[in-house]
Design a protein that fits this description.
There is one protein chain. This protein is 4% helix and 46% strand. With 119 residues, it is mainly β. The radius of gyration is 13 Å and the shape is globular. The termini are far apart.
Length: 119
Amino acid sequence: QVQLVESGGGLVQAGGSLRLSCTASGSSRITFRMNAIGWYRQAPGKQRELVALISRSGNTNYTDSVKDRFTISRDYAKSTVYLQMNSLKPEDTAVYYCNYYWPALVGAWGQGTQVTVSS
């Protein structure tokens, strides 16, 4: 059974915005709320990369390419981590995944959600 489910992707023109959601299932909510969660993306022909990170306490970090454009946040009551993406660029086109940050907690990857930015 999939533990983390991504949603919110779609097709958007350059300069547009999308908000992605990552929601934990009932059985994984405790682990989810107690650990740092990252949004990752993988573009065709490229390796998966971490783009945004949020700690257990809510501290955030971003890769330089998305800094000041993306915002990661979490809603503890809903066991959900969001990625607000503004000023989208074609280079942001990728499948976006959420997962734990610590390698020991990273297991299977979900289906992700496709983000396509047209120019």
